[in-house]
Amino acid sequence: MAVCPGCGNETAVKQNFLLPTKPAFLAAALCSLAACSSSPKPPEWQVEAKSAMERSVAAYLEGNRRVEAAELARARSQLSRTGRPDLLATAELLHCASRVASLVFEPCAGFEPLRADATPSQRAYADYLTGQAQAHSIALLPPAQRAAAAGDTGALQGIADPLSQLLAAGVLLQTGRASPAVVALAIDTASAQGWRRPLLAWLGVQLQRAEQGGDAPEALRLQRRMAIVQGPDAAVKEPRKDEK
Known about the structure:
Blueprint: H1 25-29, H2 44-62, H3 65-80, H4 85-101, H5 120-129, H6 143-149, H7 162-174, H8 180-193, H9 196-212, H10 216-229
Helix pairs in contact: 2-3, 2-4, 3-4, 4-5, 4-7, 6-7, 7-8, 8-9, 9-10
């Protein structure tokens, strides 16, 4: 799966632990949380950490900062009980990946203190999230993200998981390689999932381009659409529109 930092190296993963989740990438991203257990019933910390990360990511995409922060803190607390930096790194990278998908481009602060003890694939993934993937490390990335790391915009259509697709599009935008078709695809994907935060961010990019191109009618249309997303009950009011 595309959002799965470190999963490829976890040969002892017990797949029967991974309950069906939506979006599908989440099970893969947290697969390392299920490793090393020979019992059919996983330890409580695994179940709690996985569930908390699911809720944290979902809340972030929906624009609910309070729930996102509370669930992320709960996941970190459970993972810290293991004393394993690689497991904590997985959660931190997933946390940062949801932000890149929503066009928040910043260092993955939670991962950096863990970098020295992270796996090579996790370090490559962290670099990828900041638009600094190295050619020699692309093979260490999740398969669905390798094409985006290499600048292949056409590969986005082939990414089935919505958040994985938005992540790849976000990296392309961050590195200055997102075509209008990439932006439009990202908007359609976020809209179809009802993910308010990334939808507003990607609409903001499209609005900025319309304004820069002098297309006033298109700019007005996008402003009306953003106003709908920013309805009276919306938690997210200020989408990120900066292009890097």
